[in-house]
């Protein structure tokens, strides 16, 4: 799906007219800037995150792998306002198969560069790990601030939304789940 920057520019011009500032000097190039920005921040629409994950050949590790505090930015599909925060991703390798840890961050980036819901982002991320690595278990915890909640409506800035998705051993074994949660909270 190609992003049509010309349509975005037309839409932004209509918004500027709608709020009555289309003649302001500072907004003359805003439609062009927004078109370019949307092409960048929605680049994940043109990428398949499932193509990123594959086990490292010849490596074996059979304990928990956790990458924590991975920063991300996304856009709420309801209001097209940003939400941002950090993700914590853990998995338990099956047959010792591991993935490069940067691949986990890359998958997060691809999924976040789409109009998104935090709940869906969390679920999609853990499901891609489960499908791509077939680990014993995987768990994703995401905490984020949503500008649609901070800037409008209830206006509760700095409130964090926390979502989690738990699969396999992280779901069936409370000790494993607790170990992951303790590790993400250690500073």
Fold blueprint:
Elements: H1 5-18, H2 30-41, E1 65-76, E2 82-92, H3 101-112, E3 115-116, H4 118-133, E4 137-146, H5 147-150, E5 161-168, H6 169-172, H7 174-185
Parallel strand pairs: 1-3
Antiparallel strand pairs: 1-2, 2-4, 4-5
Helix pairs in contact: 1-2, 3-4
Structural commentary:
The protein has 187 residues and is α+β, with helices and mostly antiparallel strands. Helices cover 40% and strands 23% of the residues. It contains seven helices and five strands; from the N terminus they run H-H-E-E-H-E-H-E-H-E-H-H. Strands 3-1-2-4-5 form a five-stranded mixed β-sheet. Strand 1 and strand 2 form a beta hairpin. The mean pLDDT is 96.
């Amino acid at each position: 799906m190609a992003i049509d920057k010309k349509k975005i520019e037309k839409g932004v011009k209509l918004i500027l007219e709608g709020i009555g500032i289309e003649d302001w000097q500072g907004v003359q190039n805003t439609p062009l800037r927004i078109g370019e920005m949307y092409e960048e921040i929605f680049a994940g629409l043109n990428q398949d995150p499932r193509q990123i994950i594959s086990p490292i050949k010849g490596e074996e590790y059979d304990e928990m792998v956790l990458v924590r505090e991975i920063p991300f930015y996304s856009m709420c599909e309801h209001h097209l306002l940003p939400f941002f925060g950090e993700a914590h991703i853990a998995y338990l390798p099956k047959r010792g198969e591991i993935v490069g840890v940067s691949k986990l961050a890359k998958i997060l980036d691809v999924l976040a560069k789409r109009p998104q819901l935090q709940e869906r982002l969390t679920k999609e991320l853990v499901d891609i790990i489960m499908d791509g690595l077939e680990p014993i278990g995987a768990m994703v915890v995401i905490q984020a601030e949503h500008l649609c909640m901070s800037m409008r409506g209830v206006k509760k800035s700095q409130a964090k939304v926390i979502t989690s998705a738990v699969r396999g051993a992280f779901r069936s074994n409370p000790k494993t789940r607790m170990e992951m949660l303790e590790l993400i909270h250690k500073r």
